[in-house]
Amino acid sequence: MAPAVQSVSPLAPLGVNAALEASRNASIKPSPKIFEEFALTDRVGIVSGGNRGLGLEMALALCEAGARAIYCFDLPETPCEEWVKTKEFVEKLGNGARLEYDSVDVTKQKEIWEKAKVIGDKEQRMDVCVAAAGILKAHTDCLTYPEEQFKQVHDVNTNGVLFTAQAAGQQMRRFGKGGSIILIASMSGSITNKDHAWVSYNTSKSAVLQMARSMACELGKENIRVNSLSPGHIYTSMTAAYLDAQPHLLEKWSNLNPMGRIGRPDELRGVITWLASDASSFCTGSDILVSGGHHAW
Ligand SMILES: NC(=O)c1ccc[n+]([C@@H]2O[C@H](COP(=O)([O-])OP(=O)(O)OC[C@H]3O[C@@H](n4cnc5c(N)ncnc54)[C@H](O)[C@@H]3O)[C@@H](O)[C@H]2O)c1
Fold first, then answer.
1. For 57-95, what is each residue's pLDDT tens digit?
2. Where are the transmembrane segments (predicted)?
3. Is 27 an annotated catalytic residue?
4. Per-residue pLDDT reduced to its tens digit, 277-293
5. Is residue 260 part of a domain?
6. Ligand 1 pocket: which of 83, 198, 236 to mutate (most atoms <8 Å of CB)?
7. Beta partners for residue 130, in sequence order
8. What Rg value do the Cα atoms of the chain yield, rounded?
9. In whole angstroms, what separates CA 80 from the centre of its chain?
10. Domain that holds residue 214
């Protein structure tokens, strides 16, 4: 007896079912569908921390995958030159995607909710959220860690991630079509970086891992999926603060993973598109580690 069918892909028939249907009906011409499953055609999304670094790289990947509009939220009033050049590149892709920018501080809950509502009003949908805004401070002794600095890191890395997810999630609920929320955590939420005194950062990232699981459990029935993505060492402005000032760290960090090198921002393009798209439609409450194997040692 065939098991009860509980869900059907919008691209059905897919996979083996497509093969069986083609064998029954000679007029069906087999064609690959795997990249259609990754396509983000007409989707709308928000990427916090999207002015530069991993956020901007991910926003571009979502645009290349066919999103209608990706809104980058970040602190500066106007976006940086790199962002402007990336927007121009998106305009030339010819797939109709738009890269937009809004000056938003993710620690301001009501403001970010309101910004997302304005986007919902305009676009009449919300499908993807990438909460990538984050900060890392200089080494600070855990036994005398100052209260204000500890709170500041948590305000951005934990509270700000929640507020961003709420802002997009409220719009996903409003339009009733589900969605994918991706919280950018870090391998530092699961492991401690050798010889680095980063207790505030590491603690804030651990909180993000549990936030993703917790939200996933509350929102699963609404088909709003929530996962965390935990990168390993990747060269961006955040890590440049260490790597440029202490060049010996490049070799040290590289030797901490089995691949013997640090990662590139573009090496997160595939995983973010997979998580944002229907190709990951049964994935929620998971943490995806992309660390060159750092965590495996
Ligand atoms: N680079 C790495 O090796 C690495 C590894 C693991 C995780 N991460 C995480 O990836 C995310 C992106 O980091 P990145 O490496 O691209 O760093 P980055 O410093 O280049 O980018 C972070 C962005 O967040 C923005 N931001 C900071 N506070 C904000 C606020 N209150 N409101 C809105 N935006 C704010 C910054 O302006 C900046 O544009 C962070 O959450 C970081 O912790 C990075």
1. 999 999 999 999 999 999 999 999 999 999 999 999 999
2. none
3. no
4. 999 999 999 999 999 99
5. no
6. 236
7. 47, 182
8. 20
9. 20
10. 36-235+265-292
